[in-house]
């Protein structure tokens, strides 16, 4: 029989002690105080549990994984991770939960109730804890501190996740392959490898992705968005990782160090290539393969000095590649697919790198700066070629006469003197030229209306109105 009745709310109690504790809900009385921090509580059991924060005592241990807790109720909730027990069920949709508070929060989805409102911005929340967490965005408060590295967090859950970096704890295990993860979100993402699920679809090209973050990054190919900007030089990037790598140009940071010789690199790919020197893997140098810098910038960037195992084969032509992405790019030669579209002029490209280089025509961006003279370039290959002016390096030598050139294109043009090759032919008069610019100059004769006699140079095709100007010009060839 409940003989002790509360006059405030009518609730009844069998024991007087429970009745007294309950009345403190209405009176707000908190007679039990913590000697360490002065915080007060309505029950003695609450102050005992609270004091464990100061003492570090965690007397409640999980029989499944050995994890310890300062409060018994927290242990009970934790054990439901192992048992899978979800005793709290929603009457609306029958979804079940391991914690009562999770059910209460969930039910507000059906009711739409958001009773907790932020006084700063007016945003409303269905749960008070969410409001408290949100308010820290305004105050900047980060009350949860890691004792290992002193890093601070605005939410306790973020601290718990962070601490697993130090402890190595990986409580979220994949049932398919046994791989364990620090965060539940990592496990969910990983499981899509087994299911093959790719729920995030690009509406532009139809490509699908396993993660929303991958889709967001991919969509920047179509939009041209580059939200990550370097504060040093203003260059922008579509991905944060690319900005991080780029910033090492300015900082000189080289975090990837070779354990054999101590040499450091700004990129992990540079370290991997370097380490093959020590492992004595087969290498090729530019001299050994008689290769030189290609005028095509993107090919220069992708050149591999150290070859890898080529396990990806093109069914069309039999060419093999060491990276699957390179095979995909190559196959567009056969299909003619050009999925990367310039939003300014509508021109399309087979590779995103080609689109990025092309867009600099519209933006005027010239991110590659020569430190010798300050001249800037839109492509890295143009900077490399230009630097030969300062170094005097002329690696491209003519086998016929020994003349050397700083560019491969210069050597090719020169060799036509020896071979007599004239690949550039005028469609109007069938005259041929060894250089494209000579053909362009020649074609002006046909395009322009001749109001007076024109004198054309036989060597390069350039035309002059005055014969004296032609004679002076011809001295350049002799």
Could you characterize the architecture of this molecule?
With 478 residues, the chain is of the alpha+beta class. Among the domains are: 23-111, 2-Layer Sandwich (Double Stranded RNA Binding Domain); 312-391, Classic Zinc Finger (Double Stranded RNA Binding Domain, 2-Layer Sandwich), CATH 3.30.160.60. The protein contains 17 helices and 32 strands. The strands form 16 sheets. It has a two-stranded antiparallel sheet. A two-stranded antiparallel ribbon has the order 3-4. A hairpin with a 6-residue loop joins strand 23 (340-341) and strand 24 (348-349). The N and C termini lie far apart (122 Å). Mean pLDDT is 81; it is low at 281-308.
List keywords for this structure.
478 residues, Double Stranded RNA Binding Domain, two-stranded antiparallel ribbon, metal-binding, nucleus, ubl conjugation, transcription regulation
């Amino acid at each position: 029989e409940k003989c002790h009745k509360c006059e405030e709310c009518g609730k009844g109690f069998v024991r007087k002690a429970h009745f007294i504790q309950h009345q403190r809900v209405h009176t707000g009385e908190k007679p039990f105080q913590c000697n360490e921090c002065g915080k007060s509580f309505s029950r003695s059991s609450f102050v005992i549990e609270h004091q464990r924060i100061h003492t570090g005592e965690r007397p409640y241990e999980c029989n499944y994984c050995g994890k310890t807790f300062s409060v018994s109720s927290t242990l009970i909730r934790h054990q439901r991770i192992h048992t899978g027990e979800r005793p709290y069920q929603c009457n609306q949709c029958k979804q079940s939960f391991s914690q009562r508070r999770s059910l209460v929060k969930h039910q507000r989805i059906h009711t739409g109730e958001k009773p907790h409102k932020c006084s700063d911005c007016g945003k409303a929340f269905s749960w008070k804890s969410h409001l408290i967490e949100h308010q820290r965005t305004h105050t900047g408060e980060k009350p949860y501190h890691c004792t290992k590295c002193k890093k601070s967090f605005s939410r306790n859950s973020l601290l718990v996740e962070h601490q697993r970096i130090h402890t190595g704890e990986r409580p979220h295990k994949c049932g398919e392959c046994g791989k364990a993860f620090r965060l539940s979100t990592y496990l969910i993402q990983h499981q899509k490898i087994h299911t093959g699920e790719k729920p995030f679809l690009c509406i532009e090209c139809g490509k699908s992705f396993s993660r929303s973050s991958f889709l967001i990054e991919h969509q920047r190919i179509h939009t041209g968005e580059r939200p990550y900007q370097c504060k040093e030089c203003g260059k922008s990037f579509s991905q944060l990782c690319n900005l991080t790598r780029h910033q090492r140009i300015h900082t000189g940071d080289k975090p990837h160090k070779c354990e054999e010789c101590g040499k450091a690199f700004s990129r992990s790919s540079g370290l991997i290539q370097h380490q093959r020197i020590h492992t004595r893997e087969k290498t090729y140098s530019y001299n050994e393969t008689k290769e030189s810098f290609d005028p095509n910038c993107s090919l220069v960037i992708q050149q591999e000095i150290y070859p890898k195992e080529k396990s990806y084969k093109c069914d069309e032509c039999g060419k093999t590649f060491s990276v699957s992405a390179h095979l995909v790019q190559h196959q567009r030669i056969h299909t003619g697919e050009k999925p990367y579209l310039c939003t300014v002029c509508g021109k399309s490209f087979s590779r995103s790198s080609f689109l990025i280089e092309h867009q600099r025509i519209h933006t005027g961006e010239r991110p590659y700066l020569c430190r010798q003279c300050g001249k800037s370039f839109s492509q890295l290959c143009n900077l490399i070629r230009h630097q030969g002016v300062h170094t005097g390096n002329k690696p491209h030598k003519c086998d016929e006469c020994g003349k050397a050139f700083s560019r491969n294109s210069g050597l090719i043009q020169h060799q036509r003197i020896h071979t007599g090759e004239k690949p550039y032919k005028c469609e109007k008069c069938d005259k041929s030229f060894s250089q494209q610019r000579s053909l362009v100059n020649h074609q002006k004769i046909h395009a322009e209306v001749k109001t007076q006699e024109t004198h054309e140079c036989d060597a390069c095709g350039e035309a002059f109105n005055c014969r004296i100007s032609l004679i002076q010009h011809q001295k350049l060839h002799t």
